[in-house]
């Protein structure tokens, strides 16, 4: 009997140690991971960034970081260990947590649902993540961490209004907690309410003037409103606290670009790349800035580096095509537009650019076909309308020139 009791005590001790380790991994404050960004893929982010060529005609190049902002990004080793545990326990059902508790001769702990929600986060399954946080919140309705994490998952799914409801619940429990304020601000930006988002970030900064997340996010909101100088001010304030934040360096670079300070922009991209040479958004942004400086060959060099990391990024493909276009390599440009169209056949900008390249190859019929496809998708697309008229005019002129020759015979 003593041996059995001793074994049970040992099992319980080991289980508690594992639980404590999980808690120490899961519960990091927002300050420990100010950007809290998932590895940039996309989304996000919709970590994320909407990639467009940052020219004066691109009005929304910068988008805020969305997903996972309240959860520490795990090391590869820890993530691998969690992945192995997730695979062993799969497939999961609602009874998994209860059954696991029985196997370990322990009472059921609803915190297990919280852990499974985090596993779903690691797998990028936001719907599953929300499901398990809801199961956990049935037992612990006032857990602010679960409410915030659920809000973050809702943002990743584009459900901004419901995300705000969860952040508000967290604030009603702890009004001095800045994370839900930052979450509300992010959701408001997702809804396009940048001015209201800035007011929310100001509330967070009122509680903590050195909250680097609120500083960065306020900079992003100002950036999206076109207040680039003021945005830089807040990026600089955040960088005074965390000088190696690559996202603020890159975003400051984009703001400088908007102000026409291309040299300053490239300096900030280079600073970010010194810290992380594989930061694809800085690589791409540097290429786009060089593009706008007319340094097309060098821009293509950086586009190619970025495309090695993200070969299916439509904007990179289109912009590489644009650079080749301006170098007079229309065939190479079309190849890149076609690659972009193989990913999204309804991209009217790629269709219009392809038409322009075909036009310059004197393939007016092909150009008109490409413009018409774009106009079927968006009948009011001015660039395609204008370019199609040019191609039709050129085609008609060629036909008119040919008729007299036939008649003179």
What portion of residues is helical?
over 70%
Second rung of CATH, namely the architecture of the domain at 312-409: Alpha Horseshoe
The coarse silhouette is globular
- Poorly predicted regions: 1-93, 400-409
**What is the CATH homology-level superfamily of the domain at 312-409?**
Tetratricopeptide repeat domain
**Largest sheet, if any?**
none
- Please state the CA-atom Rg, rounded to the nearest Å: 27 Å
Number of DSSP strand runs: 0
For the record, give the distance between the C-alpha atoms at the N and C termini, rounded to a whole number.
Answer: 115 Å
- Structural class call reads mainly alpha
CATH level 1 name of the domain at 312-409: Mainly Alpha
N-to-C SSE string, H for helix and E for strand:
HHHHHHHHHHHHHHHHHHHH
Number of helices: 20
Question: Strand share of the residues?
Answer: under 5%
Averaged pLDDT: 77
Could you name the CATH topology of the domain at 312-409?
Answer: Serine Threonine Protein Phosphatase 5, Tetratricopeptide repeat
């Amino acid at each position: 009997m003593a041996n059995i009791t001793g074994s049970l005590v040992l099992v319980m001790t080991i289980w508690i140690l594992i639980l404590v380790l999980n808690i120490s991994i899961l519960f990091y404050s927002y300050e420990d991971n100010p950007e809290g960004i998932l590895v940039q893929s996309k989304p996000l982010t919709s970590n994320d960034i909407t990639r467009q060529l940052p020219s004066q005609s691109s009005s929304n190049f910068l988008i805020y970081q969305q997903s996972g902002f309240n959860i520490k990004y795990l090391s590869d080793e820890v993530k691998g260990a969690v992945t192995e545990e997730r695979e062993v326990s799969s497939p999961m059902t609602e009874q998994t947590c209860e059954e696991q508790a029985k196997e370990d001769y322990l009472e059921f702990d609803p915190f297990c649902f919280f852990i499974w929600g985090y596993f779903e986060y690691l797998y990028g399954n936001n719907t599953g993540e929300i499901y398990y946080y809801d199961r956990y919140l049935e037992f612990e309705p006032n857990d602010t961490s679960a409410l915030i994490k659920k809000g973050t998952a809702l943002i990743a799914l584009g459900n901004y209004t419901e995300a705000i409801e969860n952040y508000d619940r967290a604030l009603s429990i702890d009004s001095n907690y800045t994370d839900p304020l930052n979450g509300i601000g992010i959701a408001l930006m997702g809804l396009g309410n940048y001015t209201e988002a800035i007011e929310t970030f100001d509330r967070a900064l009122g509680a903590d003037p050195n909250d680097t997340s609120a500083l960065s996010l306020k900079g992003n909101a100002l950036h999206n409103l076109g207040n680039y100088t003021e945005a830089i001010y807040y990026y600089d304030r955040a960088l005074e606290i965390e000088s190696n934040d690559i996202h603020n360096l890159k975003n400051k670079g984009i703001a400088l670009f908007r102000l026409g300070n291309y040299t300053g922009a490239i300096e900030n991209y280079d600073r970010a790349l010194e810290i992380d040479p594989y930061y694809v958004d800085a690589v791409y942004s540097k290429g786009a800035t060089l593009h706008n400086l007319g340094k097309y060959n060098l821009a293509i060099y950086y586009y190619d580096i970025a495309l090695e990391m993200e070969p299916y990024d439509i904007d990179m493909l289109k912009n590489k095509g644009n650079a080749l276009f301006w170098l007079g390599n229309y065939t190479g440009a079309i190849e890149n537009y076609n690659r972009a169209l193989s990913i999204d056949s309804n991209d009217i900008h790629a269709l219009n650019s392809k038409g322009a390249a075909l036009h310059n190859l004197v393939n007016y019929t092909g150009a008109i076909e490409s413009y018409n496809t774009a106009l079927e998708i968006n009948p009011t697309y001015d660039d395609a309308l204008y370019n199609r008229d040019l191609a039709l005019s050129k085609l008609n002129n060629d036909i008119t020139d040919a008729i007299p020759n036939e008649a003179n015979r």
